[in-house]
Specification:
five-stranded mixed β-sheet, globular, about 110 residues, Adrenodoxin-like, Ubiquitin-like (UB roll), 2 helices, alpha+beta
């Protein structure tokens, strides 16, 4: 990681993979950063962990803190949730995300 830039590898719904470089001082959620980078994420609830339209899967057993109760409850309602599912609205862009690989699942 150089200065305050992290790299996240993103696979979109069509299977296209590209690296996304993000500054860590932007104070945004991963969902907001993905939307700003023109990924197709609905984010219907605006980042409140109420809709799961920003559902992602974290690849390669990347170590993240456990979801909070609201996020865990929402993930429990999804038929396609896996052990590595997260809501991108609940992850803040920070140095801890450097090198993470994700697959955007979104609303299904």
């Amino acid at each position: 990681m150089q200065d305050n830039i992290i790299t996240i590898t993103v696979e979109d719904q069509e299977g296209t993979v590209r690296d996304l470089e993000l500054p860590t001082d932007i104070s945004l959620s991963l969902m907001e950063a993905l939307k700003a980078s023109e990924y197709d994420i609905l984010a219907t609830c605006g980042g409140m962990a109420l809709c799961a339209t920003c559902h992602i899967q974290v690849q390669d057993d990347f170590d993240l803190p456990s979801p909070n109760d609201d996020e865990a409850d929402m993930l429990d309602t999804l038929h396609n949730a896996e052990y590595n599912s997260r809501l991108s609205c609940q992850l803040r862009v920070s140095p801890a995300l450097d090198g993470m690989k994700i697959k955007i699942i979104g609303a299904e």
